[in-house]
Amino acid sequence: MNIPLFLLTVLALTMGAYALGRRRALQAVGGVRLHSLPGYYGAYAALWAGLPALAILVAWLVGSSWAIEGLTLASLPDGAAGESPAEIALFLNDVRNESAGLISRGEGREVIVDAAAHYDWLRSRGIAAAIAVAILLSLAGGGFALQRVGPGFAARVVVERSFRIGLMISAALAILVTAGIVLSLVFETARFFAAVSPMEFLFGLHWSPQTALRADQVGSSGSFGAVPIFTGTLLITGIAMLVAVPVGLLSAVHMTFYATPRFRDVAKPILEILAGVPTVVYGVFAALAVAPWIRDLGTSLGLSVASESALAAGLVMGIMIIPFVSSLSDDAITAVPTALRDGSFGLGATRSETIRYVILPAALPGIMGGFLLAVSRAIGETMIVVMAAGLAARLTANPLDAVTTVTVQIVTLLTGDQEFDSPKTLAAFALGLVLFVVTLALNVVALRVVQHYRERYD
To answer: Which is more confident, 420 or 96?
Structure first.
């Protein structure tokens, strides 16, 4: 379906209905007071003109593929597409590829060629029918709405109720999507734990998820102890927070209390630019600049430093998180009432004493919440770890060694062609569920900290 053209047509009809509804409301005044503002009448007509057409679009996107493939199969002789569901699915895939021009039209493919031609015919007719029905419904809906426009019609009530229902549907969709993600993780994790013991996964000390596909295959231990992965995640996250927390908090304090307005207007945007840099750029910087520098420095000091280390990834990740910590801390500090600061100065406290004993304790809920959210951000980072820390699942607390994290292993396990009945692939879902639970727990703790230590100042 030519979706851009369809949307432009619907948008034009909706705007036309809005203009006509508003104009009709103004013309219908005639000395009688309108129940609602003219814009509400226009919005009412626009809703009736736009929503039916959008409903047709959603119905087409959801059901067109299933309907067209079913009609295509029904047009074929019995058994031409195969007998088993797998054979039918493969045949339909060949038909779609033939329709897209991805398969050469050679000998012995007459059935697929004919089916692809019928498939294209059905799709083109379906597109035309969907557009025609959508336009007719839009015109009919707009005309119905214009007939109801009048001084006594409560357009504001109807429009506001419609928007309220739309907001409720949006919130419900967000909840349903989240629930679907969680349920998919739980379902696949249950399949993984049916093959691998949860105790081995949560407390095992060796991670080697490569499983044997044949009885004589070597180098496939199939060990799923995730403790080295959890340790690497915590190690890199700890290094990142050691960099981001003090630098971010002190930069927020400096720009709030010590920096001149001109310096703050220049420094704060520059600092927040770091938040907009893609993580792959940080990864390249860590792999090409920071990691070699750490390795050369360690060699000069007589230390054994891996070419890819947790220290390099943690330092660069900390730099990436600095704007996050600084911005949240700045907002929390700025939200402290100025009366507290003035009262402290009035009692003879210095600026540093006011910051330590008045401002920071009052801003502690926001600061702690920002720290915990920054930890969640660090745990979920992938690109920097892939490029700077490596893929080795090593149980170590040495920041100079190469380690890996949960997110990196998820990417590794799901890269390329995978067999979704294998514990190796299902292990990615188990890691994803653990990551989800940890991140959710950190967010809950952050909210509890904010609620527990929040103080209200009049």
So the answer is: 96
Q: What is the DSSP letter of 34?
A: P
* pLDDT over threshold 50, residue 219: no
Task: Give the tens place of pLDDT for each residue, 385-424.
Answer: 888 887 778 888 888 888 888 888 888 888 765 666 778 8
What count of other Cβ atoms lies within 10 Å of the Cβ of residue 13? 21
Amino acid found at 218: V
Domain ranges for the chain, please list them. Answer: 3-153, 223-453
For 358-375, what is each residue's pLDDT tens digit? 888 888 888 887 888 888
Q: Which of 271, 270, 266, 269 is nearest to 249 (CA)?
A: 271
Confirm whether pTM is higher than 0.90.
no
Which residues fall within 8 angstroms of residue 247, CB to CB, at 6 or more apart? 318, 322, 325, 326
- Cite the DSSP H helix spans in 256-337: 261-273, 279-285, 291-300, 310-334
- State phi, psi for 207 to the nearest 5 degrees: -120, 110
Q: What is the 3-state secondary structure (H, E, C) of the chain?
A: CCHHHHHHHHHHHHHHHHHHHHHHHHHCCCCCCCCCCHHHHHHHHHHHHHHHHHHHHHHHHHHHHHHHHHHHHHCCCCCCCCCCHHHHHHHHHHHHHHHCCCCCCCCCCHHHHHHHHHHHHHHHHHHHHHHHHHHHHHHHHHHHHHHHCCCCCCHHHHHHHHHHHHHHHHHHHHHHHHHHHHHHHHHHHHHHHHHCCHHHHHHCCCEECCCCCCCCCCCCCCEECCHHHHHHHHHHHHHHHHHHHHHHHHHHHHHHHHCCHHHHHHHHHHHHHHHHCCHHHHHHHHHHHHHHHHHHHHHHCCCCCCCCCHHHHHHHHHHHHHHHHHHHHHHHHHCCCHHHHHHHHHCCCCHHHHHHHHHHHHHHHHHHHHHHHHHHHHHCCCHHHHHHCCCCCCCCCCCCCCCCCHHHHHHHHCCCCCCCCCHHHHHHHHHHHHHHHHHHHHHHHHHHHHHHHCCCCC
Give domain 223-453's CATH superfamily: MetI-like (1.10.3720.10)
Percent of the chain surpassing pLDDT 90: 5
